[in-house]
Design goal:
This protein is α/β, with parallel strands linked by helices. It has two domains: 3-100 and 163-431, Alpha-Beta Barrel (TIM Barrel); 438-492, Immunoglobulin-like. The protein has 14 helices and 16 strands. It has an eight-stranded parallel sheet. The protein has a five-stranded antiparallel sheet with strand order 12-13-14-16-15, covered by helices on one side. Strands 4-6-5 form a three-stranded antiparallel sheet, with no helix packed on it. α11 runs parallel beside α14. The protein starts with 7 loop residues before the first strand and ends with a strand. The model has no long low-confidence stretch (mean pLDDT 98). Bound molecules: alpha-D-glucopyranose and calcium ion. The site of calcium ion has 6 residues, from loops. One of its GO terms (molecular function) is alpha-amylase activity. This is Alpha-glucosidase. Residues 11-385 form the Glycosyl hydrolase family 13 catalytic domain. It comes from Lentzea fradiae.
């Protein structure tokens, strides 16, 4: 079976992973030093957020040069060494490709090659489209004309009606495939094709039928290389069937399951999402994936400790009361649920340490453009991007860590059998032995229970402890009088 069909993939937000040169910003050297952390957890691959030269107006999703490395992170030679080191450890490298937009510092934009962007010469705003970060999706060039940007004003959208843009990205794919990368995570994959005749309410910049041809072409390119290299899509789409169209056999290999990420901590709703995910993926033959957190959303320890446990961009519930003990307990159960499901799993750096959303960052340190573009109403995503604590010796970092993160550092957790880190190690070690289709079991209301081959996974979301059919090989918390307590999970083999 192809590796990506059941891969465990670790997401590295490079800027906040490990700092190799002591300037407070994570970098490739730091990641190379810490690869063992990821290998030791049993991951098959790393997905790296963008590492290209960038003014970092959107954490690197504003790319100024697609064929080089941001100097703050290292050099192209460092990137090649990282790929080699990772491969030696049996870890594949997936890089982030950003085809919807670039940086306003990209040479095409700086040199005024306007046919490669969406430019309009109108008095008023060309249409009512909104930026996903707030405000209008159009800003003015120096000459008064408008350019489209679905994200920050520093991120002009490419014009995919121009064949030059297609050629450029096909060449960029080859550039990195030639350097040994094992795949691409495609940013805003549903957004490249736009229907300018329609109003914002119809989201005519998302999921237009024409976008699929682009990925069919890319699939051919990726398939023309040896090794089992992949395309992974980022699409936030409301309809699971529309979503699965991107995963047809001649398009992408897999995509992030955001329905699962957004789902509240509720047995009925989780079961519904698992079922609809499996039902949507089955006809196209693609493996589902399961994701709890990433660099755009509130960390799930925090979400699960709140009254409203689901996630929505419309309301991050920044600062809502949070019971961290409860959130942590549920996060322990959640990773056992996630890792037992069929398909791929993504883990966002720091969730293996039980890190929470840092919501008390001083506002003047916030870098996420969402904060200012929302007119200072949405505090954005900096709180999930605070650098990881490695040990008590960590120096200061570009976003300050909460003081008690020392107690959550890798060094502090590594030998503690009750730590989140130890649980993740055990979960991803045992996960290797899990195979087979999912078969639901009925163990009562508010209990999620299923079999996969020789494994039974039980997650108790009810308020009462429940009896188990036999002694588990692993449980997220100790059993109480032989029973699985509330907000806990068990694996029985
Ligand atoms: C994706 C990225 C996000 C970025 C946006 C614009 O959603 O995950 O971090 O801001 O695209 O590139
Ligand atoms: Ca650094």
């Amino acid at each position: 079976m192809s590796w990506w069909r059941n891969a465990s993939i670790y997401q590295v937000y490079l800027r906040s992973f490990a700092d190799g040169n002591g300037d407070g910003i994570g970098d490739i050297a730091g990641l190379r030093d810490r690869l063992q952390h990821i290998a030791g957890l049993g991951f098959d691959a790393i997905w790296l957020n963008p590492w290209y030269p960038s003014p970092l107006a959107d954490g690197g999703y504003d790319v100024a040069d697609y064929r080089d490395i941001e100097p703050v992170f290292g050099s192209l030679a460092d990137a090649e060494k990282l790929i080699a080191d990772a491969h030696e450890l049996g870890i594949r490298i997936i890089i982030d490709l950003v085809p919807n937009h670039c940086s306003d510092q990209h040479p095409w934009f700086r040199d005024g090659l306007w046919d490669r962007f969406h430019i309009r010469d109108t008095e008023e705003l060309p249409n009512d489209w909104k930026s996903r970060f707030g405000g209008p999706a159009w800003s003015r060039l120096a000459d008064g004309r408008w350019y489209l940007h679905l994200y920050a004003a520093e991120q002009p959208d490419f014009n995919w009606e121009n064949p030059v843009v297609h050629e450029e990205f096909e060449d960029i794919l080859r550039f990195w495939l030639d350097r040994g990368v094992d795949g691409f995570r495609i940013d805003v994959a549903d957004g490249l094709v736009k229907d300018f005749g329609k109003p914002d309410a119809e989201q005519p910049y998302s999921d237009q039928d024409g976008v699929h041809d682009i990925y069919r072409r890319w699939r051919q390119i990726v398939d023309s290389y040896d090794g089992d290299r992949i395309l992974v899509g980022e699409m936030w789409l409301p309809d699971p069937e529309r979503f699965a169209r991107y995963l047809r056999p001649d398009e992408m290999h897999s995509a992030f399951n955001f329905d699962f990420l957004c789902c509240p901590w509720n047995a009925g709703e989780l079961k519904r999402v698992v079922d609809s995910t499996l039902a949507a993926h089955e006809p196209v033959g693609a493996p589902p994936t399961w994701v709890l957190s990433n660099h755009d959303v509130t960390r799930h320890v925090t979400r699960y400790g709140r009254e409203k446990t689901g996630f929505s961009f419309a309301d991050r519930q920044h600062g809502a009361p949070t019971d961290f003990e409860l959130g942590t307990r549920r996060a322990r159960a959640a990773i056992m649920l996630t890792a037992a499901l069929p398909g791929g799993v993504y883990v966002y750096q720091g969730e293996e340490l039980g890190l929470w959303e840092v919501e008390d960052l001083p506002d003047e340190l916030r870098e996420d453009p969402v904060w200012h573009r929302s007119g200072f109403t949405d505090r954005g995503r900096d709180g999930c991007r605070v650098p990881l604590p490695w040990s008590a010796q960590d120096g200061p970092s570009w976003l300050p860590q909460p003081e008690n993160w020392q107690d959550f550092s890798v060094a502090a957790q590594t030998d503690d059998p009750g730590s989140m880190l130890s649980l993740y190690r055990r979960v991803f070690e045992l996960r290797r032995g899990i195979a087979g289709d999912l078969e639901w079991l009925d163990l009562g209301e508010d209990v999620l229970a299923f079999k996969r081959g020789g494994l039974t996974c039980v997650v108790n979301l009810s308020d009462e402890p429940i009896g188990l059919p036999s002694t588990p090989a692993l449980s997220s918390v100790p059993l109480v009088d032989g029973k699985l307590p509330s907000d806990a999970a068990a694996w029985i083999s």
